[in-house]
User: Fold this.
Amino acid sequence: NTTGGSVETNPAQLTTIPQITEEPHSLEDVAPGKPAEFVVKAIGKNLAYTWYHQTTKQFLPNDKKVIVGNAQILRIDKVKSSNEGYYICTICNPTGGSVETIPVQLTTIPQITEEPHSLEDAIQGESAEFV
Assistant:
């Protein structure tokens, strides 16, 4: 303004994104029935964490998540084969900033569901098949 007056504007809002300080790690060969935990740590104010199973595109319920300090833990109490796949956590703050973790994988140990049957009538030198 050339007349020496002032101009007022709306205050600017700074949008920052949360910063991940520790990425979760993949969990390999987890025994079915055993617990599994993915941990992510981030810094920022009033962060909201959303975990989802990338393979099935399902968001995970809040009862499976625990917040401890600046860490978010996704806990699966009893792993089963349907839990296998990739997991991602999206971390958001109230100003709209968000960041995703790297995809991490959960795999289980293969389980024997039925023991092979004995071949008592097998003849030496002949082929035999275990089912």
